[in-house]
Amino acid sequence: MIIDLTGTTSSEIASALLKARRNAGSPAMGMVGTIVVVVDEASHHDAMKAANEAGREHPSRVLVAILRPGRGTGGLDAEVRVGEGIPGEAVLLRLHGELAKVPESVITPLLLPDSPVIVWWPGGGPKVPHEDPLGALGRRRVTDAAAGRRAAVDFPARAEGYAPGDTDFAWSRLTPWRALMAAALDQYPTKVSGAEVVSAKGNASADLMAAWLQCRLGVPVEQRNSRGPGITAVRMFTPAGPIALTRPDGAVATFSIPGQPDRPVALKRRNTSELLSEELRRLDPDDVYAQTLACMVKREKMPESAKIVSEADRRSAQTAAAKAAHRTATPAKTASPELEAHAAGTRKTAPKRPAAKKAAADKAVVRKATAAAKSARKAVAKKAAPANTAAAKKTTAKKSTAKKSASKRVAGRS
Fold first, then answer.
1. Which of 96, 245, 283, 356 has the fewest Cβ atoms within 10 angstroms?
2. In what order do the strands lie in the sheet with 221-226?
3. Residues 198-239: pLDDT tens digits?
4. Which of 13, 15, 24, 28 is nearest to 64 (CA)?
5. Is the separation of the CB atoms in 48 and 81 below 8 Å?
6. Averaged confidence pLDDT in the chain
7. Separation of alpha carbons 118 and 276, rounded Å
8. Could you tell me if 194 and 218 are in contact, meaning their C-beta atoms sit under 8 angstroms apart?
9. What is the predicted pLDDT for the residue at 200?
10. How far is CA 50 from CA 115, 210, 273, 303, in A?
């Protein structure tokens, strides 16, 4: 059901929501929160679609505020949508003129009582979200640095003005990356000497990833550019080889740990509704995001030399990985030296033959080599025979002379 209201008020919008709910046969509200979307006219359709898709997991009242400030008189146009595939309730609000400068006066009466409020800026968001009039209403404030052109400028400002409840989609996109890298160090605890993050140029998530690694590991983290999409690789250099997570196509990644076979990991780039659903699952303050923002500010003030991995650490990790791969490789069986020599000569001179003929020829070569060795031993024995005979004759003559002398001595005594 769609109800169009022109030149309306917040009270009339609330009454229209109640009427539509009763006509749909569900007088009770089964929604768990309110999502306030601050967007422009060009992108409001995609933002409302993403919020409704996230509402299938978290049924909510979606209030889409399109601000049109100007000098004219203030006005409010609304479009109420209930049912027809929408899991909760959706209200499209167009605020004109002076009314656009005070949007909280329109949004506040439409918030669900006793339920959390999530404020989302799909187009980037303010530098200090909790100081925004609508941001002050939210328990959770979600921005998207990737949608703006000033991410390098906005992050330091958001770090200085951080308030519990602030978060960014650039940080949400890192959740699977951070989980896999932390799990790698749990499975293979070792010392990390450096790390690198490879991504498309100007990627806000890569800046946060580098700051998170440097904050947690206390090592230099180098950033390199690639053709994308998004982050394409994260590597941690260790004495046994690099721990790497590479995703060149934006869909499937390869997870590498020293001494273990590479593993494919499903790591596709998530769409906006999936990111919003993740933020709706936890509404408590994200302390790790706050610490990473502070580390990012410190990292910006560091000299470039402190953010570059030394070539010695890089070569050491690569050499260790090559040695590990060589150790795990299965050695090939080698033939006897005679067969190897014959095979080398055959490859140079003779054409290729079937395996059976080749084996028979190899056996013939072995037999010929054995016969030649026996012939050589016999020839050596024949050459040495005359010398051995002369020596034997001399020994026999000496023995006979000694016997005759002994006989004469015995005869003279007798």
1. 356
2. 221-226, 194-200, 231-238, 241-246, 252-256, 263-266
3. 999 889 899 999 999 999 999 999 999 998 899 999 999 988
4. 13
5. no
6. 80
7. 10
8. no
9. 92
10. 21, 29, 5, 41
